[in-house]
């Protein structure tokens, strides 16, 4: 199924905290440990492969991630943790990520295989990994428990303040998704699915993962019942450098696995 969303893409903004805790919100230790594991293996890999001077990359970055776990995972949460962990290390800013793909396979032990690619966008179709070899700047593996946690938890028991911009965008985007989806299927998918996003935007500063997160938040309950149903996810972003793109939006393809 294909959804054609004609509406400027927006980033899902981080939750807003009361002023006294916003400077240093508490993050769950599991998320912190997972990002530390990623950083540790990244540093080991660039030293072992003598590529310290190759990083951080500046342009045309793509990320290929494969996760193995016996647990159901929220793949956008895993991707965001990987991107955040490697920000300012593998690339100068995660806004330079032009495409990514993340897949989950079942396995007894948690494992994350990461490829940092430069100069070639990843396609929605699963390719022989050797196709990516000439463009792969670094590949490494993280052994250890995977975290798909996204939202930091504030300390001191303070309540989250609602992000009004995200709510305003939801009131526009969610009805568009509902109308598009109901033309082809009256009920949300209940099984495992693959999903791809082809994003077109005039924004030069919006991260691809936050745009995808915003779409997923608005698709939840309409297209699928739980984000954990997604076992394969792909996204690519095209930015108009002069801000004159006539039609901003996103083409979303969903398929059963």
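^ Assign residues to that structure.
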């Amino acid at each position: 199924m294909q959804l054609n969303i004609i509406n400027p893409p927006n980033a899902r903004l981080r939750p807003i905290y009361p002023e006294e805790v916003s400077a240093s919100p508490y993050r769950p230790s599991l998320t912190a440990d997972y990002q530390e594991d990623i950083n540790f293996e990244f540093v080991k890999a660039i030293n072992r492969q003598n590529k310290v001077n190759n990083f951080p990359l500046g342009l045309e970055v793509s990320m290929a991630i494969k996760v193995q776990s016996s647990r159901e995972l929220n793949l956008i949460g895993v991707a965001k943790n990987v991107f955040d962990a490697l920000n300012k290390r593998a690339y100068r800013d995660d806004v330079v990520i032009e495409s990514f793909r993340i897949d989950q396979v079942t396995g007894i032990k948690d494992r994350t295989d990461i490829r940092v690619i430069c100069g070639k966008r990843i396609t929605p179709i699963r390719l022989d990994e050797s196709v990516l070899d000439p463009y792969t700047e670094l590949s490494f593996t993280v052994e250890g428990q995977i975290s798909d946690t996204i939202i930091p938890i504030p300390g001191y028991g303070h309540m989250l303040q609602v992000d009004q911009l995200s709510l305003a965008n939801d009131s526009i985007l969610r009805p568009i998704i509902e109308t598009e989806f109901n033309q082809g299927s009256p009920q949300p998918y209940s099984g495992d699915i693959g999903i791809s996003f082809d994003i077109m935007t005039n924004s030069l500063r919006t991260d691809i993962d936050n745009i995808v997160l915003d779409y997923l938040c608005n698709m939840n309950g309409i297209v699928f019942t739980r984000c954990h149903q997604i076992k394969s996810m792909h996204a690519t972003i095209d930015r108009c450098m002069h801000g004159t793109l006539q039609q901003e939006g996103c083409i979303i393809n969903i398929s059963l696995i």
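Residues 27-143 form a domain with the 60s Ribosomal Protein L30; Chain: A; fold (CATH 3.30.1330.70).
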